[in-house]
Design goal:
Layout: H1 20-35, H2 40-56, H3 61-85, H4 89-94, E1 99-102, E2 108-110, H5 111-137, H6 140-149, H7 154-183, H8 194-200, H9 202-225, H10 244-267
Antiparallel strand pairs: 1-2
Amino acid sequence: MKTKLFSYSQLDTFIHRLSGLTKLICFLLLTSSVMLTFDIRIIFGIMILSIILFRIAKVEFKKVKLMFIYVFIFLITNFFLTFLFEPLYGVEIYGTCHELFRISNRYIVTLEQLFYQFTKFSKYLSVIPLGLIFFFTTNPSEFASSLNNVGVSYRACSAVSLTLRYFPDVQRDYHTISLAQQARGVEMSNKEKVLKRLKNMSNILIPLIFSTLDRVELITNAMDLRGYGKHSKRTWYSYRKLNKNDYLSITICALILLFTLYMRFFVTKSLFYNPFI
């Protein structure tokens, strides 16, 4: 059975051709735009943009399906917990109360609370595709070389590159060890009870930890033997200069951030967009 690796995919798309530094800057600009406002109009716009970019990047949904499930469960849990602890927070924010129905004296479902929680739900949901796009379309070596070119220490850049490369290795090892343990009769499927499956996971985690430590030692020895860190500078094979598409992408994302700040401080003059006034 082939493992669906959660790692960089080398494709020829507009986003893949952008520099890793460009994608990092655009990611930070767009996520900052989402974090700096509760204006559903801006958040929805960035969400649509992120979905379009996700399709352009040709990221296979089957590779991220499990992550989306976990994130969706987290968001739904957060949605209900917000209502559980602050059922009238939306009323406090927007200053009006449009009651839909009453569960008890404390728990009153209002249009304001639903609107606030839906906006909060959308904020989280809009940045997830952006993070996945960055992870799946960025070559770790090229990204490290781009960071080094703007002044970041090449030692730190190499650490970032190795970390990004390490995710698929850990996933591959976990999958291999899991199959080996199942071949020895350790049940990991849905046929076994949940607590028993969790206990059986220790049979995977322990050898996974040791294989990880072995790989760290192997890489460290290889870098030492090659004199890594002797010089203050180094060259990069995969370095890519910024081109017009990079500057255009950064400019568009910067304009989105500036528009977000303009809407917040000069139009709505508040962190929250209030459609109830």
